[in-house]
């Protein structure tokens, strides 16, 4: 019986410790009213303090491009290792009737993959006031200034990130370290990208969107069938096909460099059909 109790207490402590590390701190993001455009979302800021499953903190909402703001206290709990639920207790400040004055209820979960806190909100007194909320970890100290807490320039970039499936800043470096280049293979004498490789190419697009300081080199290759001159042209067409795909999906031209090597850099012997398949490829490098 003692062993079971100790095991339960250990799991409970681990759960709370995990939540405290993941949730405690400052967060910023947007509230999107149901039925409204994401472009009309409201910037919001939270300061959370979570200990032993109990949550206390502050909430601040603003209006994009305007000096309006309101501040409320919040209280809640952690319902599992990465979920929190809380409600606003009272508004201590509110200088605009365009902002929510309802004591909203929130349910949020920490997304391990994206690094965002995301979920929903609702006003119990007026259930038509409800919507979605997405937050990322902030790099500032929450305060009750009458000015905007920070410039609203970050909102357009955040909306872009959401629409393009880009993870939070704290997750992006890990994603880059974990990312592994794979070759894109082509049919004999062809430069058409197979559908099976499009998902992987979109992952490259996501990495480039996530890291504005890196560029990519696209390197075309062929097998040994055909003359040197013909294979150089074919490898160029393959590199250009990949480049066109990246451009069509929003990558800027100045961030792409391409190279074509013809049959000069085989990775397998061209004496077998299987080897030739591996040589009909495009490779990549970050630069």
Quick check: average pLDDT? 90
Summarize the amount of helix as a percent range: 25-40%
Number of helices: 6
Order of SSEs? HEEEEEEEEHHEHEHEHE
Strand content: 25-35%
Major sheet, described briefly?
8 strands, antiparallel, barrel
The top-level CATH class of the largest domain is: Mainly Beta
- What is the spatial order of strands in the main beta sheet? 1-2-3-4-5-6-7-8
Quote the distance from N terminus to C terminus: 60 Å
In CATH, what is the homologous superfamily of the largest domain? Quinohemoprotein amine dehydrogenase alpha subunit, domain 2
Describe the protein.
By secondary structure, the protein is α+β, with helices and mostly antiparallel strands. It folds into 2 domains: 2-167, Quinohemoprotein amine dehydrogenase alpha subunit, domain 2 (Lipocalin, Beta Barrel); 179-286, OmpA-like domain (60s Ribosomal Protein L30, Chain: A), CATH 3.30.1330. The protein has 6 helices and 12 strands. The termini are far apart. The relative contact order is 0.11. The model is unreliable at 2-20 (pLDDT under 50).
Keywords:
single chain; 287 residues; alpha+beta; Lipocalin; 60s Ribosomal Protein L30, Chain: A; eight-stranded antiparallel barrel; four-stranded mixed sheet; 6 helices; 12 strands; 29% helix; elongated
């Amino acid at each position: 019986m003692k062993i079971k109790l100790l095991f339960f207490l250990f799991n409970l402590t681990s759960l709370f410790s995990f939540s405290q590390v993941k949730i405690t701190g400052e967060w910023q993001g947007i509230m999107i009213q149901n039925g409204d455009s994401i472009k009309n979302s409201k910037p919001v800021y939270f300061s959370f303090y979570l200990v032993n499953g109990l949550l206390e903190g502050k909430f601040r909402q603003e209006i994009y491009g305007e000096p309006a703001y309101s501040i409320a206290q919040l209280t809640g709990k952690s319902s599992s290792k990465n979920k929190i639920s809380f409600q606003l207790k009272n508004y201590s400040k509110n200088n605009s009737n365009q902002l929510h004055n309802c004591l909203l209820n929130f349910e949020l979960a920490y997304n391990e993959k994206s690094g965002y806190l995301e979920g929903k909100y609702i006003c119990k007194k007026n259930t038509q006031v409800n919507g979605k909320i997405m937050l990322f970890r902030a790099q500032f100290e929450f305060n009750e200034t009458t000015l905007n807490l920070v410039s609203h320039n970050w909102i357009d970039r955040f909306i872009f990130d959401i629409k393009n499936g880009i993870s939070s800043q704290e997750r992006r470096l890990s994603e880059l370290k974990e990312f592994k280049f794979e070759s894109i293979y082509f049919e004999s004498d062809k430069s058409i990208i197979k559908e099976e490789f499009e998902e992987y190419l979109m992952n490259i697009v996501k990495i480039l969107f996530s890291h504005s300081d890196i560029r990519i080199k696209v390197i075309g290759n062929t097998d040994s069938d055909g003359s040197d001159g013909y294979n150089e042209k074919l490898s160029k067409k393959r590199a250009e096909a990949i480049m066109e795909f990246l451009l069509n999906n929003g990558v800027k031209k100045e961030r792409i460099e391409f190279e074509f090597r013809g049959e000069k850099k085989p990775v397998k012997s061209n004496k077998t059909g299987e080897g030739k398949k591996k040589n009909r490829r495009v490779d990549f490098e970050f630069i």
